[in-house]
Amino acid sequence: MTSTVNRRSFSPSATMKGSLFALAAALLASTSALAQVSDDAVRIGVLTDMNGNLSSLSGKGSVTAAQMAVEDFGGTVLGKKIEVVSADHQNKPDIGSQIANKWFDVDGVDMIVDVPNSSVALAVQGIAKDKGRVFIASAGGTAALTGKACSPTGIHWTWDTYASAASTGRAIVDDGGKSWFFLTADYAFGHAMEADVARIVKEQGGKVAGSVRHPTNISDFSSFLLQAQASGADVIALANGGSDTSNSIKQAQEFGLTKKMKMAALAIFITDVHAIGPQAAQGLLLTTAFYWDRTPESRAWSKRFFDRHGAMPTMSQAGVYSAVLHYLKGIEAAKTDRALPVVAKMKEAPINDMFATGGKIRDDGRMVHDMYLVQVKAPGEVKQPWDYYKVIRTVKGDDAFRPLSESECPLVKK
């Protein structure tokens, strides 16, 4: 018996057409769900010092750098607009915390970047961790951010106290600076810097002759410098930053101390050297993560930045650009702006841009990249504006930053 095929049964009915449409819609919805952006936008908050002693090394320049990164990325990610907001934390942890909480809870900010002043940075990283948001420190220097205070959503991008200690400290002790006196800013960054450098000095066979702590954003360092002179030390180590570092160097030169003692600027930025001038700053050894005139790529980007900001970028400002750009690439790869998937993608991908070549983000959140030991040129060596540094040596990232084997970060598997 032969069967007859009812061809009509293979023609989709209206009901079947509806089912197929519903299935297609469901598949489309499931696909689009893979690319999720909260609040229909990606918001980046630049939390910085706009008017205080750290404003020249971060401040409005960091906002400019973040905006440039967004523009260079294309202005959108996963089809959604990228917005940059900014605020002044006034170098106060309570104000920085209030802003961070409001940004995360009310304003839909997905990531906070920059944050000079390590006390503020530590507070904000803790808030970001609790709320499941991304925090990337560029200006803040305390190595505690990737130590006991590390976070699964926190990344320390540009520099830290350990890297500065390992590079600058070793170089000066090797050059004969055996006895050190510390002039230290009295907050988390200064304390960490002094501790890290003192350890390096002692390991290299040197000693600490004394130290004094000072409040931030002050103008008169005379009493502190006289204590340093009275200590008989070979080296005055400035474990401070911003205008405090600039004022310390200017007054040390006025007192004639720079002719009698070496001066180690442990957290000096190119804007500080510009403000001081090479006459007073000449001969200083320091460590930096970025120098505008080091490569064709850094030179080209820095000139674009200068056209908008009116000054060459500090390492912190260049770090903000690099960090924001890599963050946006992480969102694109993760197909979401949720913090943990984005950070995971950021850790998978190397960082190759005008800031770093072959950079990598470790399990503790430390972005490891080369650092540069530089010396401030004498006035007669300066050939053009902002031509201040001679690169003495490149310090490989794995040598510059604290090894994972010594990490106190609970995220690191021993």
What is the count of β-strands?
15
CATH class of the largest domain reads Alpha Beta
Order of helices and strands: HEHEEHEHEEHEHEHEHEHHEHHHEEEEH
Strand order of the largest sheet: 2-3-1-4-5-6
Q: How many whole angstroms does the radius of gyration measure? A: 25 Å
Query: How many individual helices?
Result: 14
Spatial shape:
globular
**What's the number of structural domains?**
2
Distance, first to last CA: 76 Å
Q: What integer is the average pLDDT?
A: 90
Q: What percent of the residues sit in helical stretches (DSSP H or I)?
A: 40-55%
The computed structural class is: alpha/beta
Report on the structure:
The chain is α/β, with parallel strands linked by helices. The chain folds into two domains: 38-159 and 295-365, 3-Layer(aba) Sandwich (Rossmann fold), CATH 3.40.50; 162-288 and 373-396, Response regulator (Rossmann fold), CATH 3.40.50.2300. Helix content is 42%, strand content 18%. The strands form four sheets. Strands 2-3-1-4-5-6 form a six-stranded mixed sheet, sandwiched between helices. Strands 8-7-9-10 form a four-stranded parallel sheet, sandwiched between helices. α2 runs parallel beside α12 (315-334), α5 packs parallel to α6 and α12 packs across α13 (339-348). The protein is globular.
